[in-house]
Every structure is written in C-alpha cells, then in structure tokens.
Design a protein that fits this description.
The chain is α+β, with helices and mostly antiparallel strands. The protein contains 11 helices and 14 strands. Helices cover 33% and strands 25% of the residues. The strands form 4 sheets. It has a 5-stranded antiparallel β-sheet. A hairpin with a 2-residue loop joins strand 4 and strand 5. Keywords: FAD, Flavoprotein, Oxidoreductase. GO terms for molecular function: FAD binding; oxidoreductase activity.
Length: 261
C-alpha cells in the first residue's frame, strides 16, 4: 500500500472542499473494493476522504411513493430495514444476498453503485426501477447513471448522498452467483410500475443493460412463459474462465423467468 493522507470530515461541504482541492483524493465509503485495491498497489490516491462521520448519509426514510436510502447505508441495513421490506421486498432480498455477512455489514449501497462493477447486484435494481441518484449538486436518473465498465455519470469531486427508489407493483431479482466471490455471473432485475416493465441485466456484460426484447414481451403479457423462445444475443457479452458469452446469455433467460415467477 502506498502512503496517503487521511481525512474524516464531519460535514458534506468539507468533503466536497477536500475533493475539489485535491483531484487525486478518493472517497472512502465501506472500502470493500477500495481497500483491497490499495493493498495490491493498484491505486495511489493522494488522500482518502472518509464519509463515515458525515451525518444523514445512512438514513432510510419514506419519500413520496417510494423510499430514500442514504448512500452510506450498508447492504445489511437495506436488507433488514422494515420500510424497504414493505415497499420493495425485491430490493431487500437483493441486498441480503450480496457477498457474505462481513461484506454486507461493511459495504455500502452508494459505494457499490459508484464503483459500477460489472458484476455488482445493485446496478440492476437502479436501472430496472429507474432510481434517482442524488448528489451534492444534482439528481441523476438511474437509466443514465452507468456509462461503461467501472464508469458512471459522476463528475470529479461529486459526492453521492442518497438514492430514491420508487415503489413498484412487481419487483424481483434473480442471480447466478460465482461460488467463490458471490458476484453475479449473471443477474436480472425485473420491475413493473403501472404498464411499464423494465428488465435490467448485470454480470453478463461490461456494464448493466436493459433487455428490451424481454421488456416488450412482458409488457404484452406479464408472465414467465411470455419469454418462451426468447434468447438474448450473446454478442458483446462477457467471456472469462467462469463462463462464456453464450452461457451467460442462456443464464439471463433462465434468471428472467425465475425473477418473474
């Protein structure tokens, strides 16, 4: 690990000021990705700006027809929160199956989403539910937030503060986990809000994406068998030592049906 300065500000304004003053500083949330990266000397930030002492970033509260979740809320907090379980049980279930107990009690929803790992679980929920990502300066639509492999719409110095998830009449996530890391080799979140249906896929490609053909089929008839005969195009999907693109394409179809069922 390379040397760095450590800051633990107690106000959001101070976090922003530190990041603006030092373009090589990094935000520290739960540290589940950043700390191992530092240990392997794959990153060399000049400073870490720890968000753990900033008030209000862990709140989970009702808002409008949905729920607002603070960016520093842990996966375990999202999984067990009574409001989340009542409004969006599919999101609570997703959080309950991230990593292991240690990861769930340290990792945060904001840190996971900002990292934009192609195999992370939350991005599928953000896109399928069209959540709103709130920062210190603006709101970003969930469908426009993820821009590529480990890339998001966040600008330098911009700090995520919370996420708003609207309620849905149907919302469920199904994934096929890597048995070692428990990351999604493929995962599908299906959400129905009114007449609109979204199916978001994670783990299978370089970044989360919507399966538009499945959405069209499910909009016509919201049933698992509406996807019979529908096959995701494997072009551009991930191939690695765990699974090739064709296998991941097959998994997406299976998982979409499971999520709907």
């Amino acid at each position: 690990m390379y040397g760095f300065d450590y800051h633990r500000p107690t106000a959001l304004a101070d976090v922003v000021a530190l990041l603006i003053a030092d373009e090589d500083a990094k935000v520290l949330a739960g540290g589940q990705t950043l700390i191992p990266t530092l240990k392997q000397r794959l990153a060399m930030p000049s400073a870490l700006v720890d968000l753990s002492a900033v008030p209000g970033l862990r709140e989970i509260v009702a808002e409008g027809d949905g729920v607002r979740i603070g960016a520093m809320a842990t996966h375990a907090a999202v999984a067990r929160n009574a409001l989340v379980r009542a409004v969006l049980p599919g999101l609570a279930d997703l959080a309950a199956h991230i990593g292991d107990a240690q990861v769930r009690n340290r990792g945060t929803i904001g840190g996971s989403i900002a990292n934009a790992d192609p195999a992370a679980d939350y991005p599928a929920a953000v896109v399928a539910l069209d959540a709103i990502i709130r920062t210190d300066r603006r709101d970003i639509a969930g469908g426009a937030f993820f821009t590529g492999l480990f890339e998001t719409a966040l600008q330098p110095g911009e700090v995520m503060t919370s996420l708003f998830f609207p309620a849905a009449s149907h919302a469920r996530y199904a994934k096929f986990s890597n048995p070692a890391s428990r990351y999604a080799m493929a995962g599908v979140f299906v959400a129905k809000r009114g007449d609109a249906v979204r199916a978001a896929v994670t783990g299978a490609g370089p970044s989360v994406f919507r399966w538009h053909a499945a959405e069209a089929a499910l909009s016509a008839r919201f049933s698992a068998d509406a996807l019979d005969g529908l096959v995701l195009d494997a072009e551009g999907l991930n191939s690695d030592m765990h699974a090739d693109a064709a296998y991941r394409a097959h998994l997406v179809g299976v998982l979409a049906r499971r999520a709907i069922a």
